[in-house]
Amino acid sequence: MDETTAPTRPLFSRRSLIVAGAMGAAVPAIAGAAALPGEPARAALGTVRRVTLYAEALPGGLYGYGLERGKATVPGPVLEIYEGDTLEITLVNTTNQRLSIHAHGVDYSTGSDGSPLHASFNAPGETRTYVWRSREMFAAAGRRFMPGSAGYWHYHDHAMGTDHGTGGVAKGLYGALIVRRRGDILPDRQFTVVFHDMTINNRMAPNTPMFEANLGQRVEWLAIGHGNLFHTFHLHAHRWVDNRTGMLESISDPSPTIDNKDLNPGSSFGFQVLAGEGVGPGAWMYHCHVQNHSDGGMSGLFLVRNADGSMPPGAEEAIHRFRGHTHTPATSQSHGDHQGAGQ
User: Fold this and answer.
1) What is the pLDDT of residues 135-169, one digit of tens each?
2) Residue 166 to residues 98, 115, 133, 241, 264: CA-CA distances in angstroms?
């Protein structure tokens, strides 16, 4: 297996988990939800969940978040909770840089904002706890409802380099945050894709991640945008519904079905597909559909193996062709020409 291959989502995954409550131990999402992949998620209301994250320097001038010392990654681990839960994150800064953790999509006090505006950050070597709260939708006046927290969100540094964390984000301090609604279906595998300027997970083709699944497995994609350029995310041969989960809620659900969506700085979305559904196994591309971005290295592979895990015909050759392809970096002028792409 190639070193860029994404991890699977087994019952005891360390990269994607719902973290347990009172004792502060980490428990995988599936175990914590008392459900198997492909079954509805269940969780108790109002659980306080605790996790420790370590911010660490990595080779190549990068930085990452990790669930254990010496295990930081880019992107950082996927954090998951259910609507109504509270997540307490103890961030241990093992670096010599000021940094923090800032969340999208959840509630928090100014002290947990992760912003220097509120003196909410970790000084070099400092340990600090951030508290994120979530809530379910509730009835409001006028036969309307206020939205809950369920969605595919993300977290990132907001203090390294500048008061907006520009340096930390550029160097890999980011990750995915999922707030699930009770009844959501859990995936077999889970992939995080971060488009940052001209990179995917801080890599450029042909060194971008190659994600793998077996035919028919339920795969959850988490897409996040950072940096200064506007992008679109396209997945070959697979489609999803443009709503919260990527799946139709009923036979009359009017949500459009898409295979390409804007992925711009600060935005995020997620969806689930069945690997190879209707098209079969193969080495399928994912990439930015701004043409000079994909030409410049913003592309990767989604390898759908046969149901038994074996390599399908032609896939190995396609992988070799991808790795041997010459990607032409886009010019700065071309970047400017596409600043408004997808808007």
Assistant:
1) 998 888 888 888 889 999 999 999 999 999 999 99
2) 12, 12, 25, 32, 15
Sheet with 218-226, strands from edge to edge, namely: 199-200, 189-196, 218-226, 268-274
- Our CA angle for 293, 299, 302, nearest 5°, is 160
Q: Under CATH, which architecture does the 189-337 domain have?
A: Sandwich (2.60)
Domain boundaries, the chain: 16-180, 189-337
Instruction: For the domain covering 16-180, report its CATH number.
Output: 2.60.40.420
Helix (H, G, I), strand (E, B) or coil at 111: helix
E strand or H helix at 234, and its extent?
strand 231-235
CA atoms within 13 A on the CB side of 318: 17
Backbone angle region of 318, left / alpha / beta, with phi > 0 → left and psi within -120 to 50 → alpha: alpha
> What pLDDT digit, counting tens, does each position of 166-204 carry?
999 999 999 999 999 989 999 999 999 999 999 999 999
Q: What is the pLDDT of residues 247-297, one digit of tens each?
A: 999 999 999 999 999 999 999 999 999 999 999 999 999 999 999 999 999
Q: Is the dihedral of CA 308, 76, 67, 31 positive or negative?
A: negative
Residue found by looking up tokens 């520009």 in the block: 166
Instruction: Give the number of other CB atoms < 10 A from CB of residue 145.
Output: 11
